Fold:
Amino acid sequence: MELKIYNPQDSGFLQKIEWNFEELKKEIAAASHEYEASVYTDDTIKAAKADRAKLNKFVDALNGKRTEIRKALLKPDEQFSQEIKELTGIVQKAISNIDSQVKSYEQRLREEKISKVQEFYEENINDLASILPFDRVFKSEYANASTTMKSIKEDILFLIQRVGEGLAIINEVDSKYAGDMKEVFLRTYDIGAAMAERNRLEVAEEKRKAYEDELARKKAEREANVQKETSRVIQAGNVVAPIEEPKKEPSTSQNIPIVETVEDPLHILDFRVHATKVQLDKLKDFLKTNNIQFGPVPKGDQ
Structure:
């Protein structure tokens, strides 16, 4: 099949539209020069508007003629375009018929290849099927004709081996974060990422313990300071009276040692304490521990 153009021939196509271009150019240039040099006053503004309208009308006439000629030139092309479209439509039906069969063939090959890939997967996955399902093993490029079964098998075997070895490593890890490691590994199949997760969690745990130890240390320090201050307040109210030595009786014998008994007298001290409830409880515990009697001050003594 060959498309042949009978009319016009190559030499018969319109090469140029011939018209009085040069003649009009001279006339228009001379007239326009006069208008370009024209000066209008307020009294002649009406004439200026008329001149402008005349020139615009001339420009519109030129553009109108150009449009008219353009349509005339394109009219044969419009018919030719319709005829070409009709022919391509006939051919397109044949193309569509062939295309549907080619695509059906290619789809059948894809499905057959996917089936072979799945068969190979099932033969080699063993007890890792639940860990490594087929939909996570299969890649879309496996179905392409350009991807060989040899490369696909190598890819699948490598992944199965990597997952099996990674699980074995995690199962041997003695860490309370082994579960977290396995979760990351099953999501990524990357033992490096699983190890990094364990390290991250261990560092976070160390920081948490250090923070809690510091809180406990500060709490103990505060409680010790409260206890120390409570003791200081209580001791500040204890006035120790001087102990008078008893008069010595004449000894009847110098060989008999004299045992002197000194009794610590009781002192009564009234004072007011400004403290929190916790501090007051600690003060009460201190008084009880040291057998110090305490109670409210009688109204008559206030």
The mean pLDDT is 84. Helices lie at 21-36, 45-124, 134-137, 149-172, 178-188, 191-236, 277-289. The longest helix spans residues 45-124.
